[in-house]
Design a protein that fits this description.
CATH architecture of the largest domain: 3-Layer(aba) Sandwich
CATH topology of the largest domain: Isopropylmalate Dehydrogenase
CATH superfamily of the largest domain: Isopropylmalate Dehydrogenase
Low-confidence stretches: none
Bound molecules: adenosine-5'-triphosphate
Helix content: 25-40%
Largest sheet: 11 strands, mixed
Number of helices: 11
Number of strands: 13
Strand order of the largest sheet: 9-8-10-5-4-11-12-3-1-2-13
CATH class of the largest domain: Alpha Beta
Mean pLDDT: 93
Strand content: 15-25%
Shape: globular
Number of domains: 2
Structural class: alpha/beta
């Protein structure tokens, strides 16, 4: 049996609850394909921060690098400033591993109601550039407190980084329904986004089989609501991808349903995580929806070369969601994290259910 090293970082709040519900499903789905997930669990997050002053040890990224992929729960704690945990853990991992592309698939699920009257058949992959744009921290504030105070937030866009995200997105479109929409605001922002247009036009020339269009971000916000089925792959900058993917996730059923992955095209490891945070308002009550984590886990299985196992997880999620008795409270039901995940496990076709053996990582150092 092939052994695939996988890092698991449950984190805080509902993170450990949804991760504990997900891991047995991933292990069982991999076993269907004759593969064993060799899981190393790390105790990184707020508790560790409170104990040691650091959410993750200094060599944390190196420890994750020895795995093929990582499953991440959530970070956040009412007693710890958000930026300490987010920058000290998940953003540090993204930066240290140079995870250039953020993937956010969004689809509707039969049986799950959404704010849209007619969202059925929505199936979109948002490919978000993950390292630059408006989120580089370049800029500053001068004359603090004065009426004349000013702030500069400088967006950074570079040809090679745009091209790298574009190639990933075109490859994904080619493997899906062959349509790619580039989202910019090049009519009003004449430097960075005209570079996006030019670079993505060049990359598009290598993919004549992919139908390619450019859509301004404001028009795309309207189209996501009015005609979500007209979309396949969206390619967007860091800022626009961030905003549109939350809009799309809610349209398709809410934060509890939204998975994501951070990858460096062609490289290991990828880090896969629910879009939602630690949800302290429901943590410890056993009612968190595990679907976002389960679907992030399916993306992890794709990433480590087990597409059959990934598809089996998605099929089983669909089967479990089709029965409203399994729905957690965010979906309007009375189900729990474990009953919904248990229904997914039971729906895996011909799934043997091996025991999960977790070993402690060096997270204590
Ligand atoms: P954090 O500070 O960690 O970002 P947050 O509560 O500000 O936490 P989220 O964790 O994303 O942000 O939660 C936003 C809202 O969505 C909360 O009301 C939360 O209960 C709900 N929510 C998020 N994830 C889930 C889930 N998996 N199942 C059910 N409800 C969820």
């Amino acid at each position: 049996m092939a052994k695939i090293p996988v890092a698991v970082i449950p984190g805080d709040g509902i993170g450990p609850e949804v991760v504990a519900a997900t891991v047995p499903v991933l292990v069982a789905a991999a076993a269907r394909e004759g593969a064993t997930l060799a899981i190393t669990e790390y105790d990184w997050g707020a508790e560790r921060y409170l104990r040691t002053g650091a959410a993750m040890p200094a060599d944390g990224p190196d420890q994750v690098r020895s795995a093929r992929a990582a499953l991440f729960g959530a970070v956040g704690h009412p007693g710890v400033p958000d930026h300490e945990l987010v920058w000290g853990l998940i953003i540090r991992l993204r930066q240290a591993l140079d995870l250039a592309v953020n993937l956010r698939p969004v689809r509707s699920w039969p049986g799950v109601s959404t704010p849209l009257r007619d969202a059925e058949g929505t199936d979109i992959l948002i490919v978000r550039e993950n390292t630059e744009g408006e989120y580089t921290g370049v800029g500053g504030r001068v004359r603090p407190g004065a009426d004349a105070e000013i702030a500069l937030e400088v967006a950074v866009h570079s040809r090679a980084v745009i091209a790298r995200a574009a190639r990933y997105a075109f490859d994904a479109a080619r493997a899906r329904r062959g349509h790619l929409a580039l989202v910019t605001k090049s009519n009003a922002m004449r430097h960075g986004y005209t570079l996006w247009d030019a670079v993505v036009d060049e990359v598009a020339a290598d993919y004549p089989d992919v139908r390619y269009e450019r859509v301004l971000v404001d028009a795309m916000a309207a189209r996501l609501v009015q005609r979500p089925r007209s979309l396949d792959v969206l390619l967007a900058s860091n800022l626009f991808g961030d905003i549109l993917s939350d809009l799309a996730a809610v349209l398709a059923g809410g934060l509890g349903m939204a998975p994501s992955g951070n990858v460096l095209p062609g490289q290991s490891p990828g880090v896969f995580e629910s879009v939602h945070g630690s949800a302290p308002d429901i943590a410890g009550r056993g009612i968190a929806n595990p679907v976002a984590c389960l679907l992030s886990g399916a993306m992890l299985l794709d990433h480590v070369g087990l597409p059959g196992a990934a598809e089996a997880v998605r099929t089983a999620v669909g089967a479990a969601l089709a029965d409203p008795a399994n729905h957690t409270p965010d979906l309007g039901g009375a189900g729990t994290t474990t009953t919904l995940a248990g229904a997914v496990l039971a729906a895996l076709p011909d799934a043997p259910v091996p025991a999960v053996t977790a070993t402690g990582g060096n997270g204590q150092s």
